[in-house]
Amino acid sequence: MPQPDHSPRSEGEVVRGGSTDPNQPWQAYHTVFTNAKAGMDGVDKEKVQRVVYEMSKGSKYFENEKRREALVMQKIQHMKSQSALLTDSDVKNHEKAADIKIKNLETQRDLSRIWMHVDLDAFYAAVETLENPTLAGKPMAVGGMSMICTANYEARKFGVRAAMPGFIACRLCPDLIFVSPNFEKYTSYSEKVRQVFHDYDPNFLARSLDEAYLDITDQCLSRNMSSEEVAEELRRRVYDLTGLTCSAGVAPNRMIAKVCSDVNKPNGQFIVPNDRAAVMAFVSSLPIRKIGGIGKVTERILKEVLSVSVCEDLIDKRGLISALFSSISTDFFLSVGLGIGGSTTPVEEPRKSLSCERTFSEISHEDGLFAKLEELADNLARELESEELQGRTITLKLKTATFEVRTRSLTLPFLVCRKEDLLIHASKLLKAELPLSLRLMGLRVSHFQGDSSFLNQRTLAEYFSVGNSAGSGSSEISLASGSSVVPSFTAEIKAQNYLRRMGKILTVQIQR
Ligand code: DCP
Ligand code: MG
């Protein structure tokens, strides 16, 4: 099997601290939009970083990134000192414990299913180009001056990408054409694409408007086709029906399939056969950041504390991982190192919450804030009605102009779903936070009728989301759990979700 070259756009090249030149401070400034995406292999990374740094310097976003950076450094220092306390025999014992986990995980390795992950190429931009062919071949982005939703592949050559502010993108690519988003259009194209997915797997798992996981085992068997042929056929059918191109990844599980769909993007596919050696060869040199669930912070912690860069390192460093991380995180990291991911179709769980949120240009005026809240309550009430749901807990999420995220919630002794009720209670939460200058507001309803779980247990995700004193104010907070340290709530929740999808755990309780 040909091995993909993972190196050119490894998102893991974090250059920081002592290794950066103090005369070139941009080298140490990494934000989500300086990370490489498909189509950005030849980009002058140094230039992009310099422009992003210079244009962001002094902004509220920049200051917030600096604060987050300081928190991450604290976390890294803390873990380094924990690691220094470990004796050789501690590590050996943890290695033995990890070996038992590895044995157990191996018994769960399932090579019987063939999974395909399909992801449309430059989705919003491709739809806009279909509707306005004069955009073809020109650098364009969907979004505006404050934020870009996506950029086409011509624009990516300049370092322009999703999540980047439009004014920075203009500096990188002066000829960039902007198109305003039109979500109705994207939803309608997505529905067409899903008709094709349905023919290959009626139970396909849609992850967003432009991506889905399909179990194509039965297709391959009943039609006596290879997975490569099925992927080619599906991609052709999507193109014939919609004019959109997509990329596909095929592997024995969803975790690897997702990574594969990005290997030959755009308009390409990559297959990892259902064979243990092939899976292990694929993950051996795979940068950990490519794995869904390993974000920027977890990547840095693993890299700077444990020198883990590629998935294989997670197995080599299993003793330290087991010593420093919680049992759930250790399970997750070891599964990643072994290339084991979800291979059975997860059973649909009943919905736990319903929410909506809006990002906007800074609002500080009280009337403006309450008008936004009313808009959210109206929207949420309609969705609750259409899903025939009523809930007891109302959560308000606020992102301030300085990028601080707060969540505040209250649980009522009765069920609510009407706009007026949502508004009365959410207004109390908002009032208590005034004065405020906001750039995002969100509203969520949870603890629906029939869900009594909140009476006796709280999951980590809930703990994080209900604005608990530990959980509010920062998106990533260390949590000591016995003798281990969990890298962050975010990573922990992702790990939980991952394991839950694998059908391994039902709920995780936290110690209070
Ligand atoms: N999107 C967004 N904001 C982001 C990322 C994505 O609004 N920060 C939207 C626009 C994208 C769509 O979701 O078109 C799909 O996201 P992808 O990450 O799949 O990006 P694209 O499909 O645009 O490009 P690619 O070819 O890399 O898949
Ligand atoms: Mg896409």
Overview of this protein structure:
The protein is of the alpha+beta class and 512 residues long. Helix content is 44%, strand content 17%. The protein has helices at residues 45-56, 60-84, 88-107, 123-131, 153-156, 166-172, 183-200, 217-222, 227-242, 254-261, 276-284, 296-306, 311-316, 318-324, 327-338, 366-386, 419-433, 460-465, 489-501; strands at 115-120, 140-143, 148-151, 177-179, 205-208, 211-215, 246-251, 269-271, 353-363, 391-400, 405-416, 438-448, 479-481, 484-486. The strands form four sheets. A five-stranded mixed beta sheet has the order 5-6-1-7-8. A four-stranded antiparallel beta sheet has the order 9-12-10-11, covered by helices on one side. A hairpin with a 4-residue loop joins strand 10 (391-400) and strand 11. Helix 7 (183-200) runs antiparallel to helix 9 (227-242). It is globular. The site of magnesium ion (MG) has 4 residues, from strand 1. InterPro entries: DNA/RNA_pol_sf, DNA_pol_Y-fam_lit_finger_sf, DNA_pol_Y-fam_little_finger, DNA_polymerase-Y, DNApol_IV, Rev_trsase/Diguanyl_cyclase, UmuC. Residues 1-14 have a biased composition (Basic and acidic residues). This is DNA polymerase kappa.
Give short descriptive properties of this protein.
512 residues; alpha+beta; 19 helices; 14 strands; 44% helix; disordered C terminus; binds 2'-deoxycytidine-5'-triphosphate; binds magnesium ion; nucleus
